[in-house]
Design a protein that fits this description.
- The complex is a heterodimer.
- Chain A contains four helices and seven strands; from the N terminus they run H-H-E-E-E-E-H-E-E-E-H.
- Chain A is an alpha+beta fold.
- Chain A folds into two domains: 95 residues; 101 residues, Immunoglobulin-like, CATH 2.60.40.
- In chain A, helix 1 runs antiparallel to helix 2.
- The longest helix of chain A is centred in the first third of the chain and has 66 residues.
- By secondary structure, chain B is α+β, with helices and mostly antiparallel strands.
- Chain B folds into two domains: 30 residues; 94 residues, Sandwich (Immunoglobulin-like).
- Chain B contains two helices and seven strands.
- The radius of gyration of chain B is 21 Å and the shape is elongated.
- The chains are: A alpha+beta, B alpha+beta.
- Chains A and B meet through helix 2, strand 3, strand 4, helix 3 and strand 5 of A and helix 1 of B.
């Protein structure tokens, strides 16, 4: 754009000099020739002005479009980063929760601190009416392929499930445990947050 | 110059957005994992029969009972209790007869192992698939 303006300026100066030169050289000639020269110069200046205007308009429009696109791009980035951060916070919130039995299940279950290889860390206080899983995993995320789910409906089957979890656990890794309820409609509800059984304890079993 | 810069920022923005969406999707999958019990969209199913530790025949398919009334399900058979991808097969079962037909595949998959773990994912009338059930250990004879 700057280059074009400079060219435009040089052309105008050139035309003015030409016009002036013609004028001084042809003082004795007819005034018609001077008029024609000035007219041609004026037309050229006009054409050039239009061309500069068009180019400026195109450049400005292009810049405006690109600036608009840039703003749109930054908005998209901002939105996707925000979405990801929200998802991250939700997951961290779940993972950061300390072990507890959910309030709806405190009558049915309680924590047993005197657990060992044959006694699970959860106690059933009342007869259960739904289906339950003891979920054990080396993954905090309970990913399939690293997680064992064992069905239980009473204290005896919970003890069997606990033994199975211990038997199949990788003793060199911490074990995360949780209880899930499956109701008659198939709705899955978390009964407890993750219970951590560290590998040091696990090795003694 | 500005136009080139703008195009490059646009390309960069596309890559950032794609990466962020992939990360967000992964986090949502992890957060919604039915095993974390935090999902409201996934249904669960319990495999109530056969019982854990049952001795099953290689020639006769065991009776499968689930906590749902669905007769259509995916049967998972694995040599590991964790049902890892590389040690597991899944079979689409539509009825008890379907299980009888597919049982041979399960037995063949087991090979020389006498222990196998099975689990199911039920499929409801809307073709919605549940999360993986509990695993049941079977000893094949």
């Amino acid at each position: 754009m700057i280059k074009l303006s400079l060219q435009f300026f040089i052309v105008i100066i050139f035309l003015l000099f030409t016009a002036c030169g013609n004028n001084s050289n042809n003082d004795t000639n007819s005034t018609g020739t001077n008029d024609e020269t000035l007219t041609r110069a004026a037309i050229k200046i006009n054409d050039l002005t239009v061309k500069v205007h068009d180019t400026t308009f195109e450049t400005t429009s292009g810049l405006y479009t690109k600036t608009d696109q840039l703003l749109s791009d930054f908005t998209r980035i901002n939105q996707s980063v925000t979405d990801r951060m929200n998802a991250e916070m939700q997951l961290l919130t779940i993972l950061a929760k300390p072990f507890e039995i959910k309030s709806n299940y405190t009558n049915s279950f309680s924590e047993n601190n005197n657990f060992n290889a044959t006694v699970p860390p959860f106690t059933i206080n009342t007869p259960l009416t739904n289906n339950y899983f003891l979920v054990s995993s080396t993954s905090k995320f309970y990913l399939q392929g690293r997680t064992i789910k064992t069905f239980f409906i009473d204290s005896a089957s919970l003890t069997v499930a606990w033994s199975k979890a211990i038997e199949n656990a990788n003793k060199n890794k911490d074990l995360y445990l949780s209880l899930l309820e499956i109701d008659t409609n198939g709705k899955v509800t978390q009964v407890t947050n993750s219970f951590l059984l560290n590998s040091e304890t696990l090795k003694t079993y | 110059m500005i136009l080139v810069l703008s195009d490059r920022i646009g390309t960069m923005a596309d890559k950032i957005v794609t990466t962020e969406k992939l990360l967000a999707d992964t986090l949502i999958v992890l957060t919604g994992n039915a095993n974390l019990g935090s999902s409201s969209s996934t249904t669960g199913v319990a495999l109530t029969k056969p019982l854990d530790g049952t001795i099953a025949s290689k020639n006769t398919a065991p009776t499968i009972e689930m906590s749902t009334s669905s007769t259509t399900y995916l049967l998972y058979a694995s040599t590991e209790p964790t049902f890892g991808d590389t040690t597991t097969i899944s079979l689409y079962i539509e009825s008890a007869n379907g299980l009888t037909t597919s049982w041979e595949k399960v037995v063949n998959f087991t090979g020389s192992n006498s222990t196998i773990y099975i689990a199911v994912k039920s499929i409801d009338v809307n073709n919605k698939i549940s999360s993986l059930s509990n695993g049941v250990k079977l000893t094949l004879q």
